[in-house]
């Protein structure tokens, strides 16, 4: 964590799964106008799990009641789309190369993220509540199981201005989400844990989903009670982690030609008390067990 943030960085890991929504209707049907300009009925049945309200259902797009009047500034996220996508893909590329840390297995594949305007629109609705609360439902017709990451940074005016720029704060938010990789083991990759065990890895888990193809984000600054300002950022993703399911599919050893190996791995014949190299992979990798190369 950089000196710019100190101890004032909060991830939405212990947040309640609830939202603070404006109850004013966008129109008589409850539809909203997305950033693509199309009218979408976010109140439609089947879009959200039972008893969960969509964040954009009957939302008028105004700032929420927790936002201070005349002290809220929504970032022009268009200026930072390239940065956000690049930061995400750079970290996913490190994971794809098996270089995060020794306990994290290499993914079989890892899709590149692209920007999506509807995910951006829903992230904008999220941050306009000026609250660090995960939304109960951000699904879309295209992304029926969307994921979300939130970060809140309390800024300190005693720090140099260069440590408080939008670019720096966006990078710090993404880096802090990814830093939860330190809490992830191979077992947790294979099966996302239940309850509190999952709280401290779920920001990373959303970013590390192998089938995540799109992201859309929003951010704002706001000042409460004439104190130092806050920076709130939300990113919505095409896919979310699922409890008791893998975060991503692990890469297994391959035969020449790229074919999967038989159920009894060839690597098993090479495994011993000392690490061996699997000859069918280029560059060669270390065989650490009979079950995984």
Automatic annotation (TrEMBL):
Main location: secreted
InterPro entries xrefs: CAP_dom, CAP_sf
Endpoints of the signal sequence: 1-22
Pfam families linked to this entry: CAP
Subcellular location: Secreted
Residue ranges of every copy of the SCP domain listed in the record: 79-243
Source taxon at top rank: Eukaryota
Protein name: GL11762
UniProt KW keywords: Secreted, Signal
GO cellular component: extracellular region
Organism lineage string: Eukaryota, Metazoa, Ecdysozoa, Arthropoda, Hexapoda
Keyword Transmembrane helix recorded: no
Organism, as annotated: Drosophila persimilis
Gene for this chain: Dper\GL11762
